[in-house]
Amino acid sequence: MATLRQRLYQPLDNPSSQIRLIEILSQSPDEKLSSTDEGIADALSTFHRLFDALGTSYKTISGHRVPDLDGPEWAADVIEMKKVLITPHNASHFNQKDHTFIPSSLETFAQCPFWTRVWIQQEITLAPNVYYVCPTKAISHGKLYFTVDSIYAMLTERRYVREASLLEPIVHNLANALDRVYGRLLIRFLAHMPSQHSKVLARLKVLIDTFSGELEATRPVDYVYGLLRLSGLDMVPDYSRAAPDVWLELATKYLEIFQSERPELNGMCPAREFLEPHGILHFIQLCGAGLRRDQNLPTWAPVLTPLRRRQHRFPICKGSSKVYMGLLELQSRPDPRVVDNSLWVTAVKVQTVSTCDKEPLNIDAFDVFASTVATQFESFLATHGPTYVSGQPLLTVLSSTLFNQEDTESSLEMLYHILLMHNLITPRLSEQLIRDGLKRLPYEAVEHHFVEWTAKRGFFNGQKFICTEDGYIGLAGADVQEGDIICVIAHLNQPAILRPEGDQNLFVGCCFTLGLMKGRLLTWSSKGGQRL
């Protein structure tokens, strides 16, 4: 499919002019959603059909006509429809036959490149009216947002996944694809809500997306400048500046939001509360420069260009708790701040890395990965014995670490299936797996966990197993080395690995280590905080 772009137009008083405008949009590959109908027209037809199904339910329940979800009141109309339907993602609103039309065309629609472009995000958010057009079909932004919201919520609901006629991997892949589209549409929805609170949330959602690596820009500085109208940061575009300088200013201005925020009359701090689930310092985990990603930046600063194939952002553990919340030492301390290009944080030293793998995991060749895991787990059994320092079975902890999940229930089963697929179940591993509680469930019983992990397994390319002086085991980035410090930083949801260098600390990366917070804490004194 050719490079795809989406353009904006407003309804015209003259219908013939409107038709002519659509024809113009459809004839230029630079000014439309798609240069062909392939997949896109089917997707738009599906969205219309599903919206009509939701509209029928709305009309039956409320007795009112279905809003057009267009014009200046579209966001308010979306809220009204949601209130009436209560659960618009309920599969009962749709005809079962509709489900068979969902996957292929909608996934094609979601994979259109324009969804990731920074300038497109700004255009579709600021325009008063937006329509998505291909040669034979069109849909308004309001209808698309409401329908995508409903479908995405339905696809991620466990009850629907169990009952759907579609295979679970298909449902999961489609949900992931639509998640990217939904994120773009949500920003426009928040920005067009009447309340000032929603507009603040739209700004913050833009900043989250900026750091997430989901957006693309031709010029590196446009990861910042291309979204300034949406982020609202006090920055003046200067295209003569080097990209690292602009990224550093972005991080500085971003942190100033929380330093200057004052409670509203109801006592709430919208920015802080919206970012709390992510952690104010989430950008360090997602796109921190680290030791080798950009020599022109401090190791903590964000790198906003697409990652090279061998680089991966450290994954955020699904359902993981904020490790810093349980430490009194990190409460009621100054917010993170930037002074002279140094990031000052409040941190507590937890452990020191005593050993780490020589070579990182390689998931490109899955058979090599499985063989490496089997060898590594055999080695850990030999050096640590069958029981982890927390008292849990060692293989359970290792498999949970590998699959990046705190829920250990299905970890052994997933490990067993991976090793079994590659004939790597040794007598010792088999015996220990059974002792640790392996039930040898059918593959279908753990499939949804395995599908989730498969979707993000690329994150683990370049990760190394590490071990601390107290026997805790985890995964960390390829740059980790013996003697590095594992610490907990206020407002960063996962433990960080730092390397002291003179009067400051280099940010090496984040790590995932089960049971770490149950061990001893080492005092790391500094009234002014730690300097990165």
UniProtKB/TrEMBL annotation:
InterPro entries: HetReg/Transcr_Mod (IPR052895). This is Heterokaryon incompatibility domain-containing protein. It comes from Fusarium solani.
